[in-house]
Structure formats: C-alpha cells, structure tokens
Amino acid sequence: MNWLLAILAGLAAAPFIREALRRSVSDARKAAAPGGFATLSRGTTYYRWRGPEGGPVAVCVHGLTTPSLVWDRIADALVDQGYRVLTYDLYGRGLSDRVRGAQDSDFFVRQLEELLTELGAPPKITLLGYSMGGAIVPAFAARHIDMLHQIVLIAPAGLGHDLGPASRLIANLGLFGNWLMLTVYARSMRRACNAERSLPSSIPGITDVQVDQINDRGFLPAILRSLRGILDEPLGDEHRAIADAGLPVLAIWGETDDVIPLACKEALSELNPNAVNVVIDGAGHTLPYTDDPAVVAALHTHLVKPDGLRV
Questions:
Q1: Nearest residue to 207 via CA among 229, 230, 225, 190
Q2: pTM score, whole prediction
C-alpha cells in the first residue's frame, strides 16, 4: 500500500515539478528582440514602438495565449496610415516577466497605466484589444476616458466568451484545477494551435511561437490566473460607461468564431448602441493573422482619424 501511495504522490507532484524545471526567459532571447524593456512596479514589460515619431499613437493589447507578435501585420498597416504604434507583452506572456498574483482587470490596467507613463505616451491614444485584450481595453477605457481618442475591439472577450469545458472546469477546481492546467490544458493548447497550421497566416511561425511558450516557466500559471481573473469578470458597467461618455468604439467580429461567438455582438450593441460593428465573413478567432487584410480594411474605413493622420 505504501508503494501505491508513493506512486500516486509522484504522479500528483510531477506536473508541478515539471513546471518548476521549465526554462526562464533568457537574456539572449530578450537581447534578440526588436524592442525594449520597461521596469514597472510588478516586473519588466517588453514593448516595441514602430512608426513615425510624432504620429497619433495607437496601442495594441494582445490576448490570453498570443504574445504581442500577433499584432505585427495590423501594426504595420497602422504605421502605413501614419500611426505610431506601441505593442507590448502582457505579464506572463512573450518576453515580459512572469508575475505572481491575481490577473484581474486591476492587474492588467495597472500594467498599461504604468507602461504609458514610463514611455511618455501622449494624452490621446487609440487603444486596440484582441480577444482577452478586448476585455482589458474597456476596463482601462472606463477608468481613463479622457486619455482615449477611440477604442477598437477585435473578437473581444468579456461579453459571453466560450473558452470550452476544460477551461471552465480548470478555472473552478482550486488546487486540482492547478494540476489540470499543467497537464490537460497544456495538451489541449498544443492540439488547438497545431490545428491552426493548415490556416493561411500572414505571420510566419506564429503557431510555433504560441506552442513554444508552454516551455516557459510561469506561462501556464499566468493563463490560469487570467481564467480566474479578468476572464471571469462581468464588464457590463465598463461598456455602459464608455457608451455614456460617447467614446467611439469599433468592434470587429469573426463570423465563424467559436471562442467569441457572434452572439456577443448583440450583447455589445445592447450595452453600447453607438458601437460600430463589422463582421468578417468566414473568419474565425484568429483574425489578426489569418484575416488581417479584412481587419485592416475595416480599420481604414471606420477609424476616426486623429489630427495629423494621413488619409
């Protein structure tokens, strides 16, 4: 019986041991990145500027598992329109620090607040959010309406998203959920990412980058903290505050998105009747890199042009 208990204990501990032995984000990887690092109160954040200095600023917030690389094609297109574009890695993803603690809206809003202060961003910006970033953006906007020129939500979470039964189970099971995150979710994410390899992508290697993050210590726990944090928060009050302030909102949806169902568009319209909604035919959840030409066309057509922007 003792040997059986020992085996069971080993199986239970194995995922946690494996997580502790995963690699850290190395200095070599950071040195090779085409951006910079800001030291904020909770850790270091990787960021990248591109586009003309003095141009209207657009800031892009990525999603749950995709690092800021996911914005590359859209950011380049915004630069072509005259924007100065800032992308950055959320804590726990990409090259930013793996930070402990709850990853709720306060957590992510504070990271963005501190980053904009550190980098000296101008008083009026266009703020874009994809997937989970589409939940972070309204949380930030509701607190900082005066800082924003407009917001763009691409397949935004927080309006009735469906991350699947495994994610819901993991988020609600405490310590056992932690164990499942390091076993079941890791395999599930690999399968989901690998299934996207057949999709046409404008960002070479984006699938490999996403899968490779699983090998980084702290990545999977960060995902779990977000599932239990901002992705479990209702955002109705934030969207209503944005509507009451008259802040322009553009929302872009994938017709066949099974993560952020198209029904979420109706939820946004109820909260903010003035939001402009664009549906991309045949598109799924991977809009920024599989349907970026359609996304860029929607941005070109519907963005409110700030002063100084080329048209």
A1: 190
A2: 0.93
Does any domain span residue 14? no
Domain membership flag for residue 26: no
| 174 occurs within a structural domain | yes
| Residue type at 171 in one-letter notation | A
Residues 199-220 have pLDDT tens digits of 888 998 899 999 999 999 999 9
Which of 238, 240, 250 lies closest to 143, judged by CA?
Answer: 238
Measured CA to CA, the distance from residue 136 to residue 134 in angstroms comes to 6
Domain region containing 200: 36-302
Q: Which two tokens stand for residue 179?
A: 């164990």
Strand order across the beta sheet in which 276-280 lies: 36-40, 43-50, 84-88, 57-61, 125-130, 148-154, 249-254, 276-280
Query: pLDDT tens digits for 243-283?
Result: 999 999 999 999 999 899 999 999 999 999 999 999 999 99
- Residue 5 within a domain: no
User: Which has the closest alpha carbon to 138: 62, 229, 61, 239?
Assistant: 239
Domains in the chain: how many in total? 1
d(CA 227, CA 151): 23
Paired with 278 in beta bridges are: 252
